[in-house]
Design brief:
Blueprint: H1 3-17, H2 23-38, H3 44-57, H4 62-66, E1 68-71, E2 74-77, H5 88-101, E3 107-111, H6 117-125, E4 130-135, H7 138-152, E5 165-169, E6 184-189, H8 204-207, H9 212-215, H10 223-235, E7 236-245, H11 251-260, E8 264-270, E9 276-282
Parallel strand pairs: 3-4, 3-6, 4-5, 6-7
Antiparallel strand pairs: 1-2, 7-9, 8-9
Helix pairs in contact: 1-2, 2-3, 5-6
Bound molecules: S-adenosylmethionine (SAM).
Length: about 280
């Protein structure tokens, strides 16, 4: 067995003992990271690896320990206090990307941008799209702008985007220029959508590291989803599409809320696990 394999085995045991859900994958990624940064897991590399493994064993998310994550075509910086993008959101982004590609020069709005994962994916995957993203948390805005800078500099593993992405600080669509009202082709978001009563059931990685404001959508969880569906009727162009990630337990409520505000063609999209993951609807023509 090579020394790196032996290290991975040892780290796996340590992470498994700490209750980390995917100890072998995490062990491999941590060892690979140290080899890439320090050249090997010996000497300084051993001390570096030990520090990183301790953080992961304390249930700090792997993405924060590594300082990065992957989302669709992008490698993104992660920062403490900023929501870590999840794989299921790649499907949500994909629905918006497919819709935006059907338009030349689509205008796309993404409130609740976090690291900028959805907005930047639209930017690199849809040529000519103009994207305006917002977040109410200054740490998220700073991280999304950092990631935008890295994409523009060609450092994020995707082709250069024209400087057509704006990341604004503020509440949902309020920071957008008023002239965009009624002109947006696609409104996409992964808003906070969990009820406050879920807090006790979260794994330490979520409870101690994802900000509460990124997770909880008001007391019953549906407040921000409902505000965004109402906003869609004012900000989308006639025929424009809204795509919102939802709690799979609330798909019926999301459908009803979209219909109640007058949106049409209301549907629910499933993720790769088969869970109801997004509500989609159009502004009536
Ligand atoms: C679930 S996270 C999603 C982040 C990112 N879109 C993603 O999928 O990885 C929700 C984000 O919404 C932001 N947020 C919460 N309430 C907001 C509001 N009223 N206006 C703008 N952003 C808000 C949070 O700060 C957080 O970054």
């Amino acid at each position: 067995m090579s020394r790196d394999h032996e290290r991975i085995r040892q780290v796996t045991e340590r992470l498994a003992a700490a209750g980390v859900p995917s100890p072998r994958v995490d062990a491999r990624l941590l060892v690979e990271h140290v080899v890439a940064v320090a050249g090997s897991c010996d000497g300084c590399g051993a001390a570096l690896l030990d520090g990183l493994v301790s953080r992961r064993a304390d249930r700090e998310p792997l993405q924060l320990v590594l300082g990065r994550t992957w989302f669709r075509e992008l490698e993104l910086r992660c920062a403490p206090g900023v929501f870590i993008p999840r794989p299921e959101t790649e499907i949500v982004a994909g629905v918006a990307i497919d819709e935006a590609r059907r338009h030349g020069a689509a205008i796309v709005a993404e409130p609740c941008t976090g690291t900028g994962a959805i907005a930047l994916s639209v930017a690199v995957e849809v040529s000519g799209a103009r994207i305006v993203a917002t977040d109410v948390d200054p740490r998220a805005v700073a991280t999304a702008r950092d990631n935008l800078g890295r994409v523009l500099a060609g450092e994020a593993g995707a082709p250069l985007v024209a400087d057509q992405v704006e990341i604004l600080d503020g509440d949902l669509l309020a920071p957008l220029a008023p002239e965009l009202r009624g002109r947006i082709d696609v409104l996409v978001a992964n808003p906070p959508y969990l009820p406050a009563s879920d807090r006790g059931s979260w794994q330490p990685e979520v409870a101690d590291h994802d900000p509460d404001r990124a997770l909880v959508g008001g007391t019953d969880g549906h407040e921000v989803v409902e505000r965004l569906l109402a906003d869609a009727t004012a900000w989308l162009r006639p025929g424009g599409l809204v795509v919102l990630e939802i709690d799979d337990r609330r798909a019926g409520d999301a459908r009803a809320a979209a219909t109640a505000v007058g949106l049409t063609a209301v549907d629910v999209v499933r993720d790769l696990t088969g869970a109801d993951r997004a509500v989609v609807a159009r502004r009536a023509r």
